């Protein structure tokens, strides 16, 4: 079957499923493989549950006309996404960075959807499987698609950019994330910059944080760009008015009061504003979108439980985002500040050094109680409370309940520190 024929079949059955637990009637099932599973073995089950066709890559499973045999299912999914993207008239915004990608994506989508029919990456489906699935969710009515791209090693963003073929792009920042794969902060900069490299090579449009010296240097002579700045008036000027705890900003004399905590969310808001301006979204609609957006899914969520005022930021963590969160929490006006932070993953050889630095920072800030959780924090030299595992923390809190106050919970996804809520 040619890619053109497969694409015609996809247009007849425009829902892609890769998990037999989520099969919808008349979908196309792609039998992807993983370290511990072979999707080919589930193809029959997918068809029995209502899938129209199953795309497989092992001859022994090719039992009827409902099976589409290819050389490699993942490659075929990616090639189909690229083919579909080339047929689409939607404008694609590519988005990457070390921190704030998902929040920025949601803010951009909130702003642009005020004027356009948009789609955006669901959750953080931002890898070599998620990006193709996002592209394949573009319909004939879609005008703008915001495609988030994640990476933990070099060449990954370049690969995803070749599939997405973005017309526009933005990098949130360059931080200490996935150092195990990138090797160093310089490796992070090189890897994330592959999005800008792709855009410049293809003479596409770039959005930038002009106050970021790395972006300013890299894009200094590039013409097709629009940036934001708090000071440089050759770019779109946005003023930071404070965050106690929510970010307040001002653009063109219009005050915007968001539901996002921390100064680190200010540039995320700015990116959404500057894209809204580029795409001619009225400023009052931009303001309405930013003020209505409330974070979800353990990303700087603010909640109350049993007398505790909680900032739940347990979706992910790296040294850059952890430092920003602690410094912001330190500046907040709140009573009885309690800090519970968990290990930061994928730091490679820098793990010991980076966890010690965060432990030292936490010890030097003004918190009433601090709890460090995980093998790496347990190994630090500190006077703070350390717990080798979540279960150890749980045992301690069962005997010594947390006092009522304001609680910041942050750690890498693998630490699953949202479980602390069950202990309150």
Automatic annotation (TrEMBL):
Record-annotated membrane-spanning stretches: none
Record-linked Pfam families: Mur_ligase, Mur_ligase_C, Mur_ligase_M
Residues in Mur ligase central domain copies: 96-275
Keyword Cell division: yes
Pathway annotation from the record: Cell wall biogenesis; peptidoglycan biosynthesis
The Mur ligase C-terminal domain, residue ranges: 299-376
Annotated binding of ATP, by residue: 97-103
Any single Gene Ontology cellular-component annotation: cytoplasm
Intracellular or extracellular location(s): Cytoplasm
Residues annotated as domain Mur ligase N-terminal catalytic: 16-62
Chemical reaction(s) catalysed: D-alanyl-D-alanine + UDP-N-acetyl-alpha-D-muramoyl-L-alanyl-gamma-D-glutamyl-meso-2,6-diaminopimelate + ATP = UDP-N-acetyl-alpha-D-muramoyl-L-alanyl-gamma-D-glutamyl-meso-2,6-diaminopimeloyl-D-alanyl-D-alanine + ADP + phosphate + H(+)
Keyword annotations from UniProtKB, A to Z: ATP-binding, Cell cycle, Cell division, Cell shape, Cell wall biogenesis/degradation, Cytoplasm, Ligase, Nucleotide-binding, Peptidoglycan synthesis
Gene Ontology MF annotations: ATP binding; UDP-N-acetylmuramoyl-tripeptide-D-alanyl-D-alanine ligase activity; UDP-N-acetylmuramoylalanyl-D-glutamyl-2,6-diaminopimelate-D-alanyl-D-alanine ligase activity
Gene Ontology annotations of biological process type: cell division; cell wall organization; peptidoglycan biosynthetic process; regulation of cell shape
Function description: Involved in cell wall formation. Catalyzes the final step in the synthesis of UDP-N-acetylmuramoyl-pentapeptide, the precursor of murein.
HAMAP family named among the record's database cross-references: MurF
Protein name in the entry: UDP-N-acetylmuramoyl-tripeptide--D-alanyl-D-alanine ligase
Gene: murF
